[in-house]
Write a sequence for this structure.
């Protein structure tokens, strides 16, 4: 919610995170068969609700260590890497400039 003003002024700042979701969502569900329940669906990393409910939902279907590895990769590392690469490409092309995510002074 803190970024609403910046997002309205510069909507292109949504592209890196949206692209990461577009890639990782199908990868998680179709390739890695990740599941969640109604409480965690769509929660993402908000208070780690998505991760806790994913673990609770899938803990009986695979090794806990493998499940944690999948969660770290698919919930944190791969989306961060995709977002960073996309941001860097957009920054180099001048589509995103330094300061677009700066919060206003209070």
């Amino acid at each position: 919610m803190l970024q609403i003003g910046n997002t309205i002024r510069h909507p292109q700042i949504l592209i890196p995170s949206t692209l990461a979701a577009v890639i990782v969502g199908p990868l998680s569900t179709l390739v890695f068969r990740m599941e969640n329940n109604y409480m965690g669906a769509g929660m993402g990393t908000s208070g780690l609700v998505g991760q806790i409910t994913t673990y609770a939902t899938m803990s009986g279907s695979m090794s806990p260590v493998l499940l944690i590895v999948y969660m770290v990769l698919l919930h944190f590392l791969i989306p961060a890497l995709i977002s960073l690469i996309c941001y860097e490409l957009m920054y180099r092309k001048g589509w995103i400039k330094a300061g677009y995510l700066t919060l206003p002074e209070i």
Summary: Residues 90 and 96 are 6 Å apart (CA to CA).
